[in-house]
Amino acid sequence: MQILTSAGVRRVATLIMGVSLSCLGATAASAGQTKVDYETARQSRKLVAVKATAPVNVDGVLEEADWSLAPIATDFLQSEPREGEAASEPTEVRVLYDDDNLYIGVVARDRDPQGIIINELKKDFNVDNSDGFELVLDTFHDERNGYLFSINPAGAKADAQMANEGRETNRSWDALWTTESRVTENGWTAEIAIPFRTLRFSSADSQTWGVNFLRRIRRRNEESLWAPLPRIFPLARVSMAGTLEGLQGVRPGNDLRLKPYALASMGQRGRGPRDGNGDVGFDVKYGITSGLTWDFTVNTDFAQVEADEQQINLSRFSLFFPEKRDFFLENSGVFQFGTAAGGGGGGGQGGGRQDSAARNDVILFHSRTIGLSAAGGEIPILGGTRLTGRAGGYSVGLLNIQQREEGTVPATNFTALRLRRDVLANSDIGVMVLNRDENGPRWNRVIGTDANFRFFQNLNLNGNITKTMSPDASVAPGSGKDTMLRGNFNYRGDTMEFRGSYTTIGERFNDEMGYVPRVGINKSTAYFSPHLRWRGGISRWLREFWPHWDFSNVTRYDGTLESRYYDYHFPLTFQDGGFAELGFQRSVEGLSRPFNINSRRRIVIPAGEYAFNDWFATARTNQAAPFFVSSRYGFGDFYDGYRHNYQAGLGARVNEHLNITVNYSRNAVSLPGGRFTTDLLSSRVIYDFSTSVFLNALLQYNTDARQWSSNVRFNIIHRPLSDFFLVYNERRDTLTDELIDRAVIAKVTYLMAF
To answer: Quick check: is 636 in a domain?
Structure first.
């Protein structure tokens, strides 16, 4: 059944978007906003750090005499919801330092301290769903790179490295720093101590850094900044940050860290006997210069890493799973190559498209190819080394890992080299080299060069060219290219957003250290969206309306159609953070061979060209509220049949200690070859005993994989960056309830910093 023709879809979408624009008007985004001269504001935002004359006790109370002598950063301006207006509550920030630490004192005043929202205590908490304070430090003052530190009123903390003003943000980076916060009758206060050895900066006697501060008041969904930013830019936009002056005679130090671990485990497969073993290993980190860090690891183990969240795959292409292992996540931004096209907002918000490969572009280096099998099983790592950081105008990344032999997988060496040179005001050019060598005749090499340019603060242009090299036996037979070329542009203004890309990937392109959904294709994408605010001022309930059109066209090298998508989305963002969206997608799929969509039931879609529509509605309530819900309903043609998709979620934040979420998804598919349903249920329970003791339990039920799985992790941070983990994993067959495997793992790490 075909609900609407392609031309009809386009006419409906054009009509709705035209009505939207005429009703709200092109000036709606600036309605109710105060004009700010951001360059003048930036130049005026200067803060002097004062050297402490006595020890600073980090207890959340600014009672030391030196705090009263430090200049105050105040007069924060909103970026959301009323861009350019004064913050609804005053914030004061002071900076002290001594020979070892940088201290930040925060006084966040609030007329209604009972309204302060604190939803989590865990490390790397969700900063968007809580009141909080964030700061960015551009220690080299290059207006590109820096460090992000975040806290909430209960003392939870999160940290991140960022490069190229947030184009690459690594939130899995863990810094050595401390903080304490206290809620008072006038709001809340906090003290932060960041050791200089945690940071990288020049060796000059007098330091000038870029700095900015952000205050979040979650019940109003308000964000305000000391050095104001347009709402379209994140805090990582350090080219618009203020200046921190007055640091004299400080040194980054060598920052030598030794982190050994010991592990004991007991496991069982099916009805087999239980077996146990133990292991030891260690990591070393050394700051060889003020900008470069050298790491190496021996007998690396990732037993404590959280389990993957399962997915249902109804597409023809492999699913994408993100990296979760700390060793590969730290400094991972330096290995990013090019810029992925991404998808429209609807995809990220629970929109219409279910095709994983369509939403995930090529990733040249994906570290999950190291130490993990195609099925996600762990392959032991003997050891490795990594050099990352900055030297002058260069960003450097070098990684070498030796993987052990495991079953039929031979011992394998992996190397990644990344070099990037800063050019112009905020642009760069670079090269990437990848090498994968098995203990035998099989090898794979990749070399690429890319360029990323920014113009006028709003326009980004990117391009790259890549070539792979492999033995003939490793790639598809026949002739074809082994190169990939890609160009991309992205414009984001106050009221309009445009982006587009063109990618061509040869038939013999073979990147065994990356994620490449498909080869032998030409792919074009385009995206357009007006970002509209309510005419006549900010609505009490509606914050933004941003209808958008998303297009993707993929053809094979012989010119035949592979895939084509037209997405039309009509989302609303509400003042409290809630979200609702209507949309539909026109899809055309060209199958050159039969598609086995369900192997267990032997359901096959014949080769041919299929055109079909998918309609959906999705909504979620404020996720910072004590209770929140989400839902999605989609229906429409599916190849030569029909599909209904149902999703529902429920969350409860009882207090800052206990958080519970339950999510359920069902696909009901009817095809001429047969009918089937898939069910995916996941439930997560998080209990934060304190800011250093956590319990995280994930239970998943997947009828497609025929598995129940549970992953329970108990974590104690017994000293800074030192952990004890107790992990329980189990998988069972959903039909027979028979045990597939289970394991109990205890792991302890101990950081020694010199």
So the answer is: no
Distance CA(465)–CA(483), nearest Å, equals: 7
Does the residue 562 lie in any domain? no
For residue 428 the two structure tokens come to 């760069």
Q: Facing residues of 297 across strands?
A: 283, 384
Q: Which two tokens stand for residue 547?
A: 């209808």
Q: Which residues contact 112 (CB under 8 A, 6 or more apart)?
A: none
Closest CA to 337 of 486, 540, 176: 486
Q: Which residue did the predictor score with more confidence, 360 or 564? A: 564
Rounded to the nearest angstrom, the gap between the alpha carbon of residue 706 and the centroid of all alpha carbons in its chain is 29
Total Cβ atoms within 10 A of residue 221: 19
Contact present, 426 and 164 (Cβ < 8 Å): yes
Identify whether residues 182 and 325 lie together within a single domain: no
Strands 242-248 and 693-702: unpaired
Summarize the confidence of residues 4-26 as an average pLDDT.
Answer: 47
Using one digit for the tens of pLDDT, what is the confidence trace for 692-751? Answer: 999 999 999 998 888 899 999 999 999 988 999 999 999 999 888 899 999 999 999 999
Same domain, yes or no, for 197 and 117? yes
Q: Are 287 and 200 in contact (CB under 8 A)?
A: yes
CA distance 644 to 39: 51
Binned at pLDDT 50, 70 and 90, residue 211 comes out as: very high
Q: Is 292 a domain residue?
A: no
Q: Is residue 457 part of a domain?
A: yes
Q: What is the reported pLDDT for 355?
A: 43
Instruction: Report residue 660 CA to chain centroid gap.
Output: 22
- What confidence tier does 340 reach under pLDDT thresholds 50, 70, 90? very low
pLDDT one-digit tens code per residue, 162-174: 877 877 777 877 8
Q: Report helix, strand or coil for 721.
A: coil
Q: Is 342 helix (H, G, I), strand (E, B) or coil?
A: coil
Domain that holds residue 108: 36-248
CB 262 within 8 A of CB 723: no
What end-to-end distance do the CA atoms of the chain give, in Å?
Answer: 69
242 shares its domain with 348: no
Share of the chain above pLDDT 90, in %: 62
